[in-house]
Amino acid sequence: MESRCYGCAVKFTLFKKEYGCKNCGRAFCSACLSFSAAVPRAGNTQQKVCKQCHEVLTRGSSPVSASKWSPPQNYKKRVAALEAKQKSHTPRSQVLSQQDQVIAERLARLRQENKPKSVPSQAEIEARLAALRDEPQGSIPSTKEMEARLAALQGRVPPSHTPQLAHQPPDTRTQAQQAQDLLTQLAAEVAIDESWERGGPAASVQNDLNQGGPGGQSTDSKGQATWSLEEEKSRLLAEAAVELRQENTRQERILALAKRLAVLRGEDPDRVTLQDYRLPDSDDDEDEETAIQRVLQQAQAMAPRPEAEEEELPWCCICNEDATLRCAGCDGDLYCARCFREGHDAFDLKEHQTSPYHPPYAGRGH
To answer: What parts of the sequence cross the membrane (predicted)?
Structure first.
């Protein structure tokens, strides 16, 4: 109803002007605002009002009845036309096919099923809560009890009876350290076996002495021979462990020294290995200092030698005349006085610094 008359729904134009009712304030055209009545809002003066306000003001109707005014007739007509149009397009059951009727019946049943159920009242909810509170509640089992019951049902040992596994940290030792630890462990086991065997022959010797028989001396000699063999074996193992430890330490120092030399030469230290250097055999009586000096000599021999600098010719770089000047701005090139002046003046290179040049072999015969 925007920009239209509230009474006849005609649209306001340049020739159809809009007027306002002095009582209700609604917009009307001049035809619908043709009534006059005393308006209390305007000081009980005669003003132009609409038909509804005229009836209220002249007949003295209550404000309650004024709020129940019906909409305009034009609006009612439009609503009636729209309802008739919708009814004409509504499908009838006798026009539907058999499949459509089955689908419509299913939809109807679904609508009946999806209807909300009756909500329980507050009294019913309180009664249910009271009944639940009155029920006896048993003790709640702990986590350990539940795990034990589950293990019993599954036929396995309960977690409480299983031994706790100790945490084993990762092994961060190097191969040399692992080899050294294995040798130490082996030496300790040999020492334990040796101590155990020492107790065995001693007891047998004591028994033979108590018996006083001739077999005592033979048993004693056998026990001493076995003990000497075990002692020699443990001594050799200990010496081997010490030599291996020293050899690993020497190789590590030689490798570290070779890597430092590679860094000084500008090479990649990760590519340096012990195979690049000749290491002495284990039978050679070479001390550590001698080995380090030998590795240094090998590294110096393997280092690339710089090429001999080419002999500088004492000639001008342009005309092959005897040079008299050296230009620092031209990478130290040699010039004679004439070529330097002509070349630098032509290219405006006056800021180049020069120094006098004397041939190193001046005075010698060519």
So the answer is: none
